[in-house]
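Task 17 of the worksheet. Students: predict the tertiary structure of the chain below and write it out as structure tokens. Keep your answer in the requested format; marks are given for formatting as well as content.
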Amino acid sequence: RDRRAASAQTDAVAAFMRQNPNTSGVTVMVTHFVNISALTNADVSSGEMVVMQVAEDGQLAVLGSLEAL
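Model answer:
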């Protein structure tokens, strides 16, 4: 609700992902369009899933997406 916190929240999610790149299994995070867009620089549809990973250089990479059924 507080858009002033948007950058800090996006940075916190990216930092969490970078701190856990070798965690086995899959981490599922559920959020809203604005958060996913800020993190991925991509447009997504309602209910769509974005598959990401941390690249070796620490950058967040979008691998693809899964459309909502």
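Marker's comment: The chain has a mean pLDDT of 85. Helices lie at 6-19, 33-40.
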